[in-house]
């Protein structure tokens, strides 16, 4: 590509829990910051299909979806700038999952860390290797690959534990492209080097599975109480303290400026009491979180508003995924039979100028657009937009992002 193309960022959060400070520092905050870059185009989504792998509690998935969506919005995600959607609203994702399943070697999945560690656990406890492992867990990386490849993402901001999944997505894309032509874009993992993993209440990595988390939107009182419970050594006031290995210090650092961090480092050397250090930590976190908490609570009280935002996001996302899936189906041979005669080697490559766009205003006064395939088939029918500009914007996205990109 000769001109500086926009970088497309894509990331998802599994909707199986309540967002905590570790999620905020490691994922929510950096993703919002990345989306504000001038040359960024961001696709952020709620990975609710992935949540089904982790929990069988329907109410929990729904609640978590609401909480994570509200957290992202409260943290400043602008749904006008970011394509913000729920994975299960995009029918093409499971469809692509199957196409990828059919090109990926099973052995690659056998080597996935998450699956292997379950097998190791079973083997060492004398159980059958695959005991209590669902096919969903085994297939997790393929679904994740489809999330990424569906939208031609270049950069995928993730934690270190997800690097292997991005590598697998590249493998799937290569295998697919090798067979069917250069259609899928190879993604790269984007690891925030400066973001250390946040320690939890007990000093281990903050994680739902260790039950050591501090919820991002705990009330002020709860937050204070939880912070008071973070483990420390037993050194008393006046005794110099180690910053290294101190969970209080590490969490403070994740919120503070470098000047504030330096001041805290000196306070440690000067023997600040744990009570005072924890109080500073509490005030520092609350300074950032308090304004977001107000927005969060307002959003949580209006799930219908969040639903509408997600629906609008889904229609923008679908404007990309639908025509691309059409192209992919064609590439693998899932084609309308009427076109079989016209099949020549040249037609394997879909011409970028063959389909056409049509923008119009309907009787309801709303603005729409259509995307019509070369064969006259209706590929995309947009939802109604309140203005011509909005419809044009969504249509442009579809055009630029997908049709003319190669
Ligand atoms: N597996 C990711 C996690 O648990 C969530 C996720 C699902 C994801 N699909 C994705 C992240 C696609 C990045 C891109 O953190």
Q: Strand arrangement, largest sheet? A: 1-2-3
Integer tally of domains: 3
CATH superfamily of the largest domain: HUPs
How many distinct beta strands?
8
- CATH topology annotation of the largest domain: Rossmann fold
Molecules bound to protein = tryptophan
Summed up, the helix count is 14
| Broad structural category | mainly alpha
The rounded Rg comes to 24 Å
Work out the strand percent.
5-15%
Reading off the top of the CATH hierarchy, the class of the largest domain is best stated as Alpha Beta
Distance between the termini: 8 Å
Low-confidence stretches: 402-406
Please describe what this structure looks like.
This protein has 406 residues and is mainly alpha-helical. It folds into 3 domains: 221 residues, Rossmann fold, CATH 3.40.50.620; 78 residues, Tyrosyl-Transfer RNA Synthetase (Orthogonal Bundle), CATH 1.10.240.10; 62 residues, 2-Layer Sandwich (Double Stranded RNA Binding Domain), CATH 3.30.160. Helices cover 50% and strands 11% of the residues. The chain is built from 14 helices and 8 strands. The strands form 3 sheets. A 3-stranded parallel β-sheet has the order 1-2-3. A 3-stranded antiparallel β-sheet has the order 6-7-8, with helices on one face. The protein is globular. The protein starts with 6 loop residues before the first strand and ends with a helix. Bound molecules: tryptophan (TRP). Tryptophan (TRP) binds next to strand 1 and helix 7.
């Amino acid at each position: 590509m000769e001109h500086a193309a926009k970088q497309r960022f894509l990331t998802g959060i599994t909707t199986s829990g309540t967002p905590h400070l570790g999620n905020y520092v490691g994922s929510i905050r950096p993703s919002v910051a990345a989306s504000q870059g001038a040359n960024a185009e961001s696709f952020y989504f709620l990975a609710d299909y992935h949540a089904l792998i982790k929990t069988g509690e329907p109410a929990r998935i729904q609640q978590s979806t609401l909480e994570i969506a509200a957290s992202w919005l409260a943290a400043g995600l602008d749904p006008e700038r970011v394509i913000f959607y729920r994975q299960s609203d995009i029918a093409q994702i499971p469809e692509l999952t199957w196409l990828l399943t059919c090109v990926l070697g099973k052995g690659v999945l056998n080597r996935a860390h998450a699956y292997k560690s379950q097998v190791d656990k079973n083997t060492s406890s004398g159980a059958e290797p695959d005991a209590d492992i669902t096919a969903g867990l085994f297939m997790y990386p393929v679904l994740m690959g489809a999330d990424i490849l569906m939208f031609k993402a270049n950069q995928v901001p993730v934690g270190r534990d997800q690097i292997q999944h991005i590598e697998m997505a590249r493998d799937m894309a290569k295998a697919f492209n090798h067979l069917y032509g250069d259609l899928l874009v190879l993604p790269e993992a984007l690891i925030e080097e400066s973001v250390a993993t946040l320690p939890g209440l007990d000093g281990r990595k903050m994680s739902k599975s260790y039950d050591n988390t501090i919820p991002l939107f705990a009330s002020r009182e709860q937050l204070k109480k939880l912070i008071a419970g973070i483990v420390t050594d037993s050194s008393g006031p006046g005794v110099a303290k180690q910053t290294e290995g101190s969970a209080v210090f590490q969490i403070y650092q994740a919120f503070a400026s470098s000047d504030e961090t330096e001041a805290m480092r000196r306070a440690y050397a000067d023997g600040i009491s744990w009570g005072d250090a924890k109080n500073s930590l509490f005030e520092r976190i609350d300074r950032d979180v308090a304004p977001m908490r107000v927005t969060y609570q307002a959003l949580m009280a209006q799930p219908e508003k969040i639903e509408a935002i997600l629906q609008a996001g889904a229609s923008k996302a679908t404007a990309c995924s639908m025509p691309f899936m059409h192209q992919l189906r064609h590439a693998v041979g899932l084609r309308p039979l009427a076109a079989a005669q016209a099949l020549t080697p040249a037609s394997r490559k879909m011409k970028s100028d063959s389909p056409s766009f049509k923008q119009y205003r309907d009787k309801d006064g709303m603005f729409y657009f259509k995307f019509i395939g070369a064969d006259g088939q209706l590929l995309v029918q947009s939802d109604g937009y309140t203005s011509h500009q909005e419809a044009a914007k969504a249509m442009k996205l579809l055009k630029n992002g997908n049709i003319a990109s190669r």
